[in-house]
Specification:
single chain; mainly alpha; two-stranded antiparallel sheet; 6 helices
């Protein structure tokens, strides 16, 4: 199981955005410089985030991006879904009778990995951008 850089960078960029968007819209260039993420990659990510109504773009010389909701209302699962990120611990489909190994039955540890996937997704469903902002403030003290 692995989160791609797209999912991780989307969360990093949105935490950065949440820290600064109450002042003015935040430019992708500023996020890129602060977080060390390629500007081209951020543009791709924010295109998906905008399409899924997590961010809104503001035009003009003072333009940039703002969140469409309060940080507490944006769960990590919303972000992952917006950038087409899925957390899977097994390769087979839950409804399939076949296992990941291609055999007619599922492997003996299938239920373990399936349960882990449920826990991970539940964790991401409970965590919001606000939680990450609070953790970040606690670490800077």
């Amino acid at each position: 199981m692995k989160l791609t850089s797209k999912g991780r960078y989307a969360v990093m960029a949105l935490v950065d955005l949440a820290r600064f968007d109450n002042i003015n819209p935040v430019s992708l260039r500023d996020i890129s410089l602060r977080q060390g993420i390629s500007l081209d990659y951020l543009e791709q990510i924010f295109s998906k985030l905008k399409k899924n109504q997590i961010v809104q773009s503001i035009r003009g010389t003072q333009g940039g991006y703002i969140l469409t909701k309060k940080p507490n209302d944006i769960k990590l699962t919303n972000i992952f879904h917006a950038v087409d990120e899925t957390v899977k611990t097994v390769q087979c489909k839950k409804e399939s009778k076949k296992g990941c190994n291609g055999k007619a039955t599922k492997c003996v540890t299938h239920n373990l990995w399936d349960e882990l996937e449920t826990h991970i997704n539940s964790f991401f469903e409970k965590k919001s951008l606000e939680d990450l902002l609070k953790n970040n403030k606690d670490q800077r003290i």
